[in-house]
Amino acid sequence: MKLLASPAVRVGISISIATGLYGVSFGALAVTSGLNFWQTMALSLLLFSGGSQFAFIGVVAGGGSGIAAMSAATLLGMRNGIYGMQLNALLRPTGWRKYVGAQLTIDESTATSTGQADPAEQRRGFWAAGVGVYVLWNLFTAVGALAGSGLGDPKQWGLDGAAVAAFLALLWPRLKGREPMAIAVACAVATVIAVPFVPPGVPILVAAVVAALVGWFSHGRRDEGLEPDVEPYGGHHAGRHQDTGSMPPCAERAEGADPGAGA
Amino acid sequence: MSLWIWLLTACVLAYAWKLVGYFVPARFLEEPRTSRVAGTMTIGLLASLAVVNAVVSGQALAADARLGALAAAAIALVVRAPFLVVVIAGAGTAALLRMMGWG
């Protein structure tokens, strides 16, 4: 009961249901693209990253080689490393939590966690979404793999629309002020421009690089504006201090020299 | 059999990516610039994920029912609907538009 009162847990459960149900489509598509039941389950249980899994079966379905399927999936999984870095900074997991948490590090758990302001909520959000998606995604992968294409296209149930809505809902509370809005727009545009030129999944990495560059450089500018005594102005201050600092001794020496000169 | 090998390799590499992020040295993360980059990157990744899921199909752009889902979700967010309602609005709109024969 107490857990259900947490907003992060509620978001985590909602996103688990929306994403978990989508596992049906993965399971069904995987077996129709030529994987057997256990290969399909291995991807959901061990690889556990929706985008990479769809990329893997997409390549296999298109007649691509196993190594090509692996490469596409691995390229797409790169962003999970960035998520891991962020989550490590945010949640500071220790011991086994690091290793279990790593496996649960995906779009949904990261988004649910980083969308919270309070550290305790960030932690609850990560585990609720991570464990929730893991359990339901695997359950529904099995359902989809067993039912095969008999279920029809999961798109007819609008499940891909649910994913769109979920990501927008997670982004929304962060768009306070002009700068976050500008970053979101810039990254959306970068994604759209990159799509035709790079393999699927890579546009997200392009957007991540754009966002990182904005963060890196606007930090410098902000420091200059808000704290005049950091590096860029610090040099000037130090110079001036040295000048004024050396003045009085000079004057003293001059004064001291004067009487001497008078005597 | 060879598919199994590449499949399991993909699984190992996926876990390696995930884990490597957790072992970036702590002092690197304590820099204010790093935390700022983490913040802008979250916004960028979420914006990108929303766009990819809304208009990207393989390596091409597509305007289909998912665009309707994006619009419905935005409206739901403007009127401050709770998260689950936003998600249902997105799914319902996409399903409805497809039933009507679009996308």
UniProtKB/TrEMBL annotation, chain A:
Domain of life (superkingdom): Bacteria
Region (Disordered): 227-263
Signal peptide limits: none
Membrane topology: Multi-pass membrane protein
Keyword Aminoacyl-tRNA synthetase: no
Compartment list: Cell membrane
Keywords: Cell membrane, Membrane, Transmembrane, Transmembrane helix, Transport
Membrane-crossing residue ranges in chain numbering: 12-34, 54-76, 126-151, 157-173, 180-198
Keyword Secreted: no
UniProt cross-references to InterPro entries, sorted A to Z: Brnchd-chn_aa_trnsp_permease
Family named by the database record: Belongs to the AzlC family.
Name of the protein in its database record: Branched-subunit amino acid permease
Organism name: Pseudarthrobacter enclensis
Automatic annotation (TrEMBL), chain B:
Bilayer-crossing regions: 37-56, 68-97
Entry-linked InterPro entries: Brnchd-chn_aa_trnsp_AzlD
Keywords annotated in UniProt: Membrane, Transmembrane, Transmembrane helix
A family per Pfam: AzlD
Protein name from the UniProt record: Kef-type K+ transport system membrane component KefB
